[in-house]
Here is the input.
Amino acid sequence: MRRRDLLGLAAGLLGAGRPGRARAREAGRTIVVYDPVFLAHRADDHPERPERLVVIMQALRAVPALGLVAPRPATLDELRLVHTAEHVERIRRLSARGGGRVDADTYVTPRTFEVARTAVGALLTAVDRLAARQARNAFCAVRPPGHHASADRAMGFCVFNQVAVAARYLQATTPWRRVLIVDFDVHHGNGTQAVFYTDPSVFYLSVHRDPFYPGTGAASERGVGTTLNLPFPPGTPRDVILGAYEAAVRRAAGEFRPDVVLVSAGFDGYRDDPIGGLGYEIEDYRRLMGVVAQVAPGGRVISALEGGYHLGALGACVVAHLEPLLHGAGRAPATPSSPTPRAHP
Ligand SMILES: [Zn+2]
Here is the structure.
């Protein structure tokens, strides 16, 4: 399919929103936050390509009851909730000068600054919708991914860390101060871990392939007790990985008592992913998200696309991932969280 056709296809997907819905129904719905601008970040022969979102949005056409929401771009101040002013300015200037490579894997184009800040803005838009009770939960279909980006560095295809900024934005603008981040991308989210490594108000839990890029994510990396890594070598039976992950998510949620859950949803653990792979089948993405939906207070979950490069399976993986959100598996809201940080063995 030619690029022009892909752009037109994605732009027209899911219609133009669904006006006229009763507010009470809005409060219980699942929204997808997406903008065709996310297709404008592209480099030749790179696996992190716009077609990833095209196949996802195409697959979501078959899912009823999803509300499509357009994002706003994050402001510079919002980017600086996590990122240094120098990093934000470096990316802005590189885009303005026509783009280039940040490292061997990570590219910036003339549109990347706009695209990446809108990807962050998609999560902030989702936060605003949940806080206004205009949505129950959200999936942000965004590019470029974010979980390798640290406060001062772009790497691993990632420019700004949208999930990290969303956690800080939640804490700054909503009553939800205790944030659990669950990351099931096949790669460890070194950027997210680094941002919150000494912060007991954000719990970062990652299940990932090890040894693998970026080389971080050992089980011994515990931060102040609110970092938990589950590294698995390739060849580990899926039931072993999924069982350990589900137990860890339940234990973390039970001890940490989050107010809201953010998900770094990478689909590159799919068994045939061209750059990842951890043996997951498509249906495993239902299971990876099911336990999250169960532990999230009030069902409050905001999920954001990270990796996932198998264009033939990616759409089905995302649909499976969304099923627990659509079916409202969340429990009742938790009691107000304790201001005292707790220890996590
Ligand atoms: Zn990945």
